[in-house]
From TrEMBL:
Superkingdom field: Eukaryota
InterPro entries reported in the protein's UniProt record: Indigdn_synthA-like, PsuG
UniProt key word tRNA processing: no
Keywords recorded for this protein, A-Z: Glycosidase, Hydrolase, Lyase, Manganese, Metal-binding
GO MF annotation terms: hydrolase activity, acting on glycosyl bonds; metal ion binding; pseudouridylate synthase activity
Pfam name, any one: Indigoidine_A
GO cellular component: cytoplasm
Protein name listed in UniProt: Pseudouridine-5'-phosphate glycosidase
Protein source organism: Mikania micrantha
PANTHER family xref list: CARBOHYDRATE KINASE PFKB DOMAIN-CONTAINING PROTEIN, ZGC:136858
Amino acid sequence: MASNALARLANLHRHFHITKSSTKGGGNDNPSVGTIKISQDVTTALANGKAVVALESTIISHGMPYPQNFETAKEVETIVREKGAIPATIAILEGIPCIGLSTEELERLAKLGTNARKIARRDIAHVVATRGSGGTTVSATMIFASMVGISVFVTGGIGGVHKHGESTMDISSDLTELGRTPITVVSAGVKSILDIPRTLEYLETQGVSVVSYQTDDFPAFFSEKSGCKAPCQLDSPEDCARLIGKKLDLKSGILIATPIPKEHSVSGNIIESAIQTALREASDKDITGSAETPYLLSRVNELTGGASLESSLDIALVKNNAVLGAQIAVALSHIQDHGSSS
């Protein structure tokens, strides 16, 4: 396994100049554009076949205000470490894609907040070329994680096909990225503000393996059940790791969706009820297309008495996903160690 990881890093050297920086340092020693900077603990873990979990950074830049975003980012990283894996929060800072952020870099991004760029696949080249800074979305995080051989990525929820997406073509790049980038994404499923049946159909078209964790019903972020049967169910981190190990070289990703924890289901049901009310109202008022999502978000905020409930649940779900993601990454590292020694 260690030799495989080193081979990946050597291959990456042929495409990018990598600066290995200690996670204790916050500065950017190499100002050249086109560099990928990997923190020392992530580099060491990859080289030795240890568990690493990628984390996206738009939850830091765009998910909540400072200092809550900074504290949440540190807490999620701590959860990953406590479960035996190394966290690799990914962002672009001053034109440098960074895999594994120091505490100082986390805080810098947190303070930038919405002044930072929100970076998907299409934005990477421009942000790097203009030496910009920003948080990576699901698609961009998947790309950078896959480049260096990180197999497991934790996020809150993924995007999907929007309501009326069959006519608007409003489909998240998360779905196409899952179809082209071989990485496992652990999330709480898809919010019911989206079209979940069509999202699952699109994932099938993209060749993505979709798993529900310990349930046969695909979770809907704030709700344990979406009413859509999951293509398959797995019940332990070891089962998930075995699936990842058997994915072969198909060049597509895996989505593992884990339902909201029982202790948060009451709050989740409140938000879910508000979403369904907002959806009905939007239909009655014939609000469609690009106007629909802003209306739904605003109306759900009104119906739940503010964004605080949704924000606290978002954090709880990310932390829950981080636990499972780290457990899967650790189980996968054990399986790969076994394979390399046999």
